[in-house]
Amino acid sequence: MDSHNNTTTEKGVLIMSLTQQELHEQILYPVTRVKAQSAGGSGVLVYSKEDPENDGEWINVVLTCQHVVDSAITVKNEWDSLLKREVKKDVMEEVSVEVFDYVGSKIASANSTQAEIIAYDKNHDLAAVKLTNTKRLDWVASLYPEDGIDDLKLFDEVWTSGCSLLHDPFSNKGELTYLREMIEQKSYLMYNAPSIFGNSGGGLFHGSGGLLGLCSRITNIQLGFGIDVMTWMGFSTHPDRIYEFLEHQELQFIYDDDDNYYDALERRATAQKESLRHLFAEDKGADKVPEPDKATGGKRKD
């Protein structure tokens, strides 16, 4: 039986190193392969719960990077009869997600299913997709606790887990090497666990098993006509931004047991209507031209 090596944080919180079986279940098994029209990468299953409105069905959601599914997203100008103007609307194609079944360390099957993009944010480089597969999926990643983010330390053990070069999922061990790297005004975690093209959208997992973020960038240097990739200098979405994305997109059900998918849909619809109302009000306000004041001969009163 595997033994645990335990450590304790400054606040006295016990962190248990994972057994080999737990590494399989928490870090490898939740990873998926994601393919869009002209790109591919990885994803992490973060939600699989019973559908409260459809007996016997489950709602399954995968997080990935926006740039992995970007080719499936088109923004078009369409006429809005309410606003009487053209507005930008998202037109999203389905993407393909492969979920892997395992027997121990061996892949028993790779099951491909279509998925719809339910939320994305280009600035955060994050996207959430809902699988059309409504079967229960056993191995779901858990987000690293929000109240534990400030306790992260350099040399914390981490694992990257994804589909490097679109290979079947595998994991690499490393450590946190920088806690808040700023790139294009966005915060990232830096780590030395090897990652390469195809890892995008895969998970950066803490040694305790929690999903810290998604692998999204690697370092490369132009050498003549070639590129030298620093596989040991990767960057993950900072966990703060994972929570910001989920809250802004009204996807709190992914980590909040008191929330659910359908309540999230209602909140999103309400937020979209409010945005349209504000847009409509701004347009109406811009169309208003002050009428001349007859008592002042056409001059406006101060």
Structural class, from secondary structure content? alpha+beta
- The share of residues in extended strands comes to 35-45%
Secondary-structure element pattern, one letter each: EEHEEEHEEEEEEEEEEEHH
Compute the separation of the termini in Å: 84 Å
Strand order of the largest sheet: 3-4-5-10-9-8
CATH architecture, by name, is: Beta Barrel
CATH fold naming = Thrombin, subunit H
Q: What is the β-strand count? A: 16
| Total DSSP helices | 4
What kind of sheet is the major sheet?
6 strands, antiparallel, barrel
Question: What are the main properties of this structure?
Answer:
302 residues; 6-stranded antiparallel β-barrel; 6-stranded antiparallel beta barrel
Overview of the molecule:
The chain contains 4 helices and 16 strands. It has a 6-stranded antiparallel β-barrel with strand order 3-4-5-10-9-8. It is an alpha+beta fold and 302 residues long. Helix content is 17%, strand content 43%.
